[in-house]
Amino acid sequence: MARKTHVQTQLNGEPVEFLCEARQSLLEVLRDELHLTGAKEGCNNGNCGACSLILDGRLVNSCLVLGVETEGKTVETVEGLAAPDKLHPIQEAFLENAALQCGICTPGFIMSAKALLDTNPNPTEHEVRYWLAGNLCRCTGYDKIVRAVLDAASA
Amino acid sequence: MQAFEYVAAQTVPEAVAVLDEKGQHARILAGGTDLIVQVREAKLAVDWMVDIKAIPEVNILTHDSQNGLRLGAAVPCYQIYDTESICENFPGLVDATKIIGGTAIQGRACVGGNLCNASPAADSIPPLIVLNATCVIVGPDGERELPAAEFCTAPGQTVLERGEMLVEIKIPQPPSNSSSYYLRFIPRNEMDIAVVGAGAAVTLDAAKQKIVSARIALAAVAPTPLFAEEASTLLAGREISEEAINEAAAAAQAIARPISDMRGTAEQRTHLVGVLTRRALKGAIQRVLDA
């Protein structure tokens, strides 16, 4: 049995502690240890963006971050977006624009969009498309997704 | 993924000590965007991952006209293109950092890691070569410096010896009337690996009519990124002209020795070297003219 490391991190605004092996990715820690299944495993090699989340204010692929690397860091996942009685404006915009079909890519797209709007509240369509290039949707609803992000920006 | 030990080194000597003791069983973890994939896919057996991101020296990012750019080996791509003075003075490097992976990759991937991964198709290496970058390497026997053009020795192989690590990349301040440009050919708009990449840096005279000096480098057409020396030197002292640019492009084509693989044939790659060399030179020249 491989050695486990004790890690303390800030997750969606709350302090969290967990034990993990060095080989476990942040994605695996979230899903298997902390039972937060919003971030999805798609390709598991940094191409699809389904596991996108925000680490210390920057968008990352959580399949390419080790859980042990998050000691003392701040992690934001899709579970932390909505208020108890109200969806986040980006989530509302995705619903209003029907910007999801099967939904597997959606948490990654929403976190990617949040990271964009946090740094650039009024992006052009061109900027949205390039920023989201690392998020794949195989139901191919890209136009609706881009419109949802632009709507959320102007909301 | 296979089991391994993780150590977050706090100092360069601490990282060097682990690397020296464990040899090829230890690997440096910076952005992890290549390393974690390689270990997960069992292309690389690693018993120790040495995380260097807590070490101050590898996070340095300073620029001034006296000392040029000091780029710590673990500085992620986004910090480069988010720094205005780097965009102004080293635009060719910025071009590359904006197209390595998507936004989430650029949040972690670093130019130092792009060098150490030593892919022939690495986007940031041609700009480093044309910008005269120097690699600062620290090992058990002390520090040494090496031009970026000499860092990679074969696909996935570098000059790093047992216990050595890349700590910093130094790029001198370009002279006035200088600029740089990098572009690659890929069959889609984003998120792909270069079929061919070309970088150019130029310095023009005060009247912006003559090329004082130029440097050209190529990616994905040889086992390592290449400095196109003859293509570069033949431009020195020439008037800016289609003829001079075409001569440089032909000289760059002459040193390309590409393979055929799923991304393109050798013939297509050789053709692309000509096209991209012309575009990189024109792009760098235009940036000086627009400045």
Strands in their spatial order, largest beta sheet of chain B: 4-5-10-6-7
Biggest pleated sheet of chain B: 5 strands, antiparallel
List SSEs of chain B in N-to-C order: EHEHEEEHHHHHHEEEEEEEEEHHH
In the CATH scheme, what's the topology name of the largest domain in chain A? Answer: Ubiquitin-like (UB roll)
Distance between the termini of chain B: 50 Å
**Could you tell me which chain pair has the largest interface and how many residues each side has?**
A-B, 35 and 30 residues
Please identify, by name, the CATH architecture of the largest domain in chain B: 2-Layer Sandwich
CATH superfamily of the largest domain in chain A: Beta-grasp domain
Largest sheet of chain A: 5 strands, mixed
Radius of gyration of chain A using CA atoms only: 15 Å
Summarize the structure.
The complex is a heterodimer of chains A (155) and B (291). Chain A has 155 residues and is an alpha+beta fold.
Summarize this structure as a short list of keywords or feature phrases.
heterodimer, A: 155 residues, alpha+beta, Ubiquitin-like (UB roll), DNA polymerase, domain 1, 2 domains, five-stranded mixed sheet, 5 strands, globular, B: 291 residues, Uridine Diphospho-n-acetylenolpyruvylglucosamine Reductase, domain 2, Uridine Diphospho-n-acetylenolpyruvylglucosamine Reductase, domain 3, Enolase-like, domain 1, 11 helices
